[in-house]
Design a protein that fits this description.
This protein is an alpha+beta fold. It contains seven helices and 23 strands.
């Protein structure tokens, strides 16, 4: 036994003495090269295992990288970043190396080729080891499944934005598209590659938005009505069957924006005078132009009470205040006739007001109250929504 241990104290290659090493714990594998001296061990030691070549397939549409059997959004600024990431993933550092440090310097050869100059440093058996490797990277372009579906016009849901007894304003249609785009962006940021917007079509009666999934379509319709008011309905249509025989439906979400919108001046024909609409989310809410008192449509009327539109706040013009007569009346110049007329003084018009905005309606001239007159319609809306008032 003493002779065998004496032979193990010398390197089997060069015959030099081998420093004593800690024996592995029971159950741990015994390293084959532990019998070699440091010089012989390091002579064959490879600090890093680098591939001879790396090929990267990048989607020419969205920049996603094909890894394994799927496409992955990497968020790279350019293909050089992609190449650095792919080479970094392919490199393997020896497990016996400690305090490893490394760097990669890309060299752009041409549009589709990058040469990666990799440098490594580490400590092995107490000796500092350095190594260099050059890894060529080839960039090829393809089309990911998502971009292929988009270019092919694939969609599962269509959101149709319409108005009740009117055509939605350009601002409303534009906002509806922005809402759809923002929801898609949110899902993309969360790594959802199945959510995308396929097409936006402007029609005489409104805007149609085609989306990739029914779930996304429902979310878009819900957010549009939450912000712009109104309600939506769902109409599924059977389009095909998948490979397993399951029925595949395409759903149309018909959004109906309210008949009236904030800024409209309406006459509810209830004897209280015209109302400046402030909110159409839930029940219609506004302020009486004659008194400044808050107005809210009955629950069963929702955002479309039995009323007639008689003007718009956008048509208001600035005019001179001649005199503030009392807390209920103010004398102004009629912007059409330039005659001094007495009109109702809503709350918010101070004693020292020099000018006010007025709107001319079929029932007369009215001062447009400040935005904060007539109560907090947003708070009222939130309370109404909490009671389940919005139609689905």
């Amino acid at each position: 036994m003493s002779e065998m241990r004496e032979r193990r104290e010398f390197c089997p290659r060069c015959g030099d003495p081998v420093p004593e090493r800690e024996e592995p714990l029971p159950g741990e594998p015994r390293e084959r090269d532990r019998v070699l001296c440091d010089a012989c061990y390091l002579a064959d030691f490879e600090l890093v295992d680098a591939p001879e070549r790396v090929e990267v397939t990048v989607c020419s549409g969205c920049g996603a990288v094909h890894r394994g059997n799927r496409w992955v959004d990497v968020g790279a600024r350019d293909y050089t970043d992609v190449a650095v990431d792919e080479v970094s993933e392919a490199l393997a550092v020896h497990v016996n190396a400690e305090d490893v440090r490394w760097g990669v310097e890309p060299e752009q050869v041409d549009r589709n080729a990058i040469r990666m100059h990799c440098t490594f440093a580490g400590v092995v058996r107490g000796v500092r080891v350095e190594e260099e490797a050059v890894v060529p990277v080839k960039i090829s372009r393809g089309t990911c499944d998502r971009c292929g579906r988009i270019s092919g016009g694939s969609y599962a849901a269509e959101v149709q934005v319409r108005g009740r007894e009117r055509v939605p304003d350009p601002e409303e249609q534009s906002r509806a598209v922005e809402i759809a785009e923002s929801l898609v962006a949110e899902r993309e940021a969360d790594g959802d590659r199945e959510s995308f917007l396929t097409e936006v079509t402007e029609r005489p009666e409104g805007t149609d938005v085609k989306l990739s999934t029914n779930k996304l379509g429902k979310a878009v319709a819900a957010r549009i009505t939450e912000e712009l008011g109104g309600s939506y309905t769902e109409a599924p249509t059977l389009v095909t069957e998948d490979g397993d025989g399951n029925e595949v439906y395409r759903v149309t979400f018909a959004v109906r924006l309210p008949k009236f919108r904030p800024g409209d001046v309406i006459d509810p024909d209830d004897g209280g005078g015209p109302v400046l609409v402030r909110s159409v989310r839930g029940n219609l809410k506004g302020v009486r132009l004659a008194t400044g008192e808050p107005y809210e449509a009955r629950f069963e009327e929702g955002e479309t009470p039995d009323a007639e539109k008689i003007g718009e706040a956008d048509d208001a013009v600035e005019t001179t205040v001649v005199a503030v007569e009392d807390e209920n009346a103010v004398q102004v110049l009629d912007p059409d006739t330039y005659e001094a007329v007495t009109v109702a003084r809503p709350p918010g018009i101070g004693e020292d007001a020099a000018t006010v905005d007025v709107v001319s309606t079929e029932s007369g001239l009215y001062v447009v109250p400040p935005a904060d007159a007539g109560g907090d319609t947003d708070d009222a809306h939130e309370a109404h929504d909490a009671d389940g008032g919005r139609a689905e």
